[in-house]
Amino acid sequence: MGPGPSDVSPRVLAAMARPTIGHLDPEFIRMMDEVKGMLKKLFKTENELTLPVSAPGSAGMEACFVNLVEPGDKVIVCQNGVFGGRMKENVERFGGECILIQDEWGTPVDVEKVKAAFAENDNVKALAFVHAETSTGVRSDAKSLCQIAHDNGALAIVDAVTSLGGIDVDVDGWGIDAIYSGTQKCLSCPPGISPVSFSDKAVEAVKNRKTAVPSWFLDKNLVMGYWGGSGKRAYHHTAPVNSLYALHEALVMMEEEGLENAWARHQKLHNALRAGLEAMGIGFLVNEESRLPQLNSVLIPEGVDDAAVRTALLQNYNLEIGAGLGNLAGKVWRIGLMGTACTQRNVMLCLDALENTLAAMNAPIKTGVAAQAAAAVLAE
Amino acid sequence: MGPGPSDVSPRVLAAMARPTIGHLDPEFIRMMDEVKGMLKKLFKTENELTLPVSAPGSAGMEACFVNLVEPGDKVIVCQNGVFGGRMKENVERFGGECILIQDEWGTPVDVEKVKAAFAENDNVKALAFVHAETSTGVRSDAKSLCQIAHDNGALAIVDAVTSLGGIDVDVDGWGIDAIYSGTQKCLSCPPGISPVSFSDKAVEAVKNRKTAVPSWFLDKNLVMGYWGGSGKRAYHHTAPVNSLYALHEALVMMEEEGLENAWARHQKLHNALRAGLEAMGIGFLVNEESRLPQLNSVLIPEGVDDAAVRTALLQNYNLEIGAGLGNLAGKVWRIGLMGTACTQRNVMLCLDALENTLAAMNAPIKTGVAAQAAAAVLAE
């Protein structure tokens, strides 16, 4: 129940252990087509360039920026946590000019600041922001932010690592031009693969580059020779065959549950967790309207030793919760409710474990009330 | 029995299916230390910067070039197959000046041409070559080539994707400065991870760069915060936890067998395969002294339909062999004997399957002699 990787279903683990076949085997290519089709549904897009990058989410981020940012390109980057900062690093490493908009960690991206930044800067090529900040548990208003980008003729680049599968991500509906995610959050697949999708406009931008993409591995022009819809599969790199078995199975499970049902499950179990935590007297970092159900940044009670609690949970309950990052280190815990780890059993375990552990340390919490509060929500 | 991915042992597949834990979990970090230690033994190096890149071999290649090549740097690249060409692409995409030495596909890198290139060019930063060309089955003389690089004050960058674990690779003994491999060849691990190692001289070169590494994901300065020996593990990206379980198990199996024993097994089974093929009248592309035991490029008999044979082997025997690449398409098959797929059973199956399939097509081969010829070698 940390910020990811989330627990992986035995079904997905079993799929991952199937015998390795060739990355050009006809059966494998058939599976690749199924993965592409399911990813399109998950991203809610018709984008032909929708595929899993053969590396973790950070490489998915890099795939978006290295293909779309050329030397001198202006990119507005919104930073309200760790991952916005990483976007800035990407823009600058590829020679782009980063116009940085900063919001306090724990708050969403301020739409008005973004409008102002576009008003002050001409010829902005792209707006980049994090939909669901894993470092803080904040959801930003992706739809409005994409609208502002389009109103100003810019591409919208979106980090959906923690949002995809946990809350609505509507690539075509919101007009996202380049998006990347990870497998190890709400898809509950082992880490190592990054689903990405590029709009036709983004594909055009890649094709019209003046300079070669400064990466061979992530060059979408090349990757599409292997993953594209042309029928012919040209070897680019050796695909991580078993990791794609796992992703395929996780996507099948997502289809079985239904995407909207998965979102509703995340929301309901978040509500239960929240009721239990609040009954104990533990509050949230993020305002209610911007809270992610799948990642709960909760305030560490006064005087409590952060690391001692996390170590006790891990040793006594085999339960991982995440530490705060950056300025939030020691101030918050990050409790994940992601994918197959988002269950009633985990919510109750976490509440009991926290209550017992904190009570044993004489922390200022109310005891004996959390479980009932959560159970009441679950019974609704 | 193609050019990789090779068959994966059930032990490694079972390891891969272990429950996913956090990439900062103390138990996982303990396993990372073991992986690093075993990789050092496998590479025969004391290099502190020895670690598995969280992506396939192509990304390992990119990790070497993106860290070591700065705009304007001169790099001599030896091309005698597909992968030398990819090295050239890497050098150029990172702004380097590529001095290309070409040798015919199927022959090793010509040491004299490399000496001449150094004589003709000043201030060469690095020499890059492929130790074992997967596209042709050729072994080049890595030791001599590294010596030439050092004699001229240049770094030696080596592709060991197909060599590592199948033939001797001696990083410290030969003075290799940057090396990358893959898990899916002679280590018989699923594809998706690339072991790399950088010498202290290479690390110095990265630290003394004038420009930032044009990749965030592959920047060795950052990756070392997570994989380095400092004790503290700073989060960089989410490691592909299950893929590293698999690599760990494959490395344990390699230690159980012993590295020298693994090389001897590859050589002996190559000898058996060769005896059988030659008895049938099928010859090799590569001269005997430069042949890789783990990758056999064999000449397709006159008048035989390449694809029809490979399809028949796959459908009737569930046996994959590789097609030729580039100019060698239709002219050779690439028969892999890699890692756990390098077994007596596979050699005999392959010979029988080829003999029956070719005989049914009235190909000009001798029948009824291959199995005995191979068995005689195996009995030695």
TrEMBL record, chains A, B:
Q: Which residues bind substrate?
A: R334
Assigned keywords, A-Z = Aminotransferase, Pyridoxal phosphate, Transferase
Look up the record and name the cofactor or cofactors this protein needs.
pyridoxal 5'-phosphate
Q: Which residues carry this modification: N6-(pyridoxal phosphate)lysine?
A: K185
Please tell me whether the keyword Transferase is annotated for this protein.
Answer: yes
Q: What is this protein called?
A: Aminotransferase, class V
The family line of this record is: Belongs to the class-V pyridoxal-phosphate-dependent aminotransferase family.
Kindly list the GO molecular function terms attached to this UniProt entry.
alanine-glyoxylate transaminase activity; L-serine-pyruvate transaminase activity
| Upper classification of the organism | Bacteria, Pseudomonadati, Pseudomonadota, Gammaproteobacteria, Oceanospirillales
Stretches assigned to the Aminotransferase class V domain? 18-324
Keyword Signal set for record: no
Q: Which SUPFAM superfamilies match?
A: PLP-dependent transferases
Q: Which InterPro entries match?
A: Aminotrans_V_dom, Aminotrans_V_PyrdxlP_BS, PyrdxlP-dep_Trfase, PyrdxlP-dep_Trfase_major, PyrdxlP-dep_Trfase_small, SP_NH2Trfase/AEP_transaminase
Q: Pfam family of this protein, just one?
A: Aminotran_5
Its GO biological process terms? Answer: glycine biosynthetic process, by transamination of glyoxylate
Q: Which Gene3D superfamilies match?
A: Aspartate Aminotransferase, domain 1, Type I PLP-dependent aspartate aminotransferase-like (Major domain)
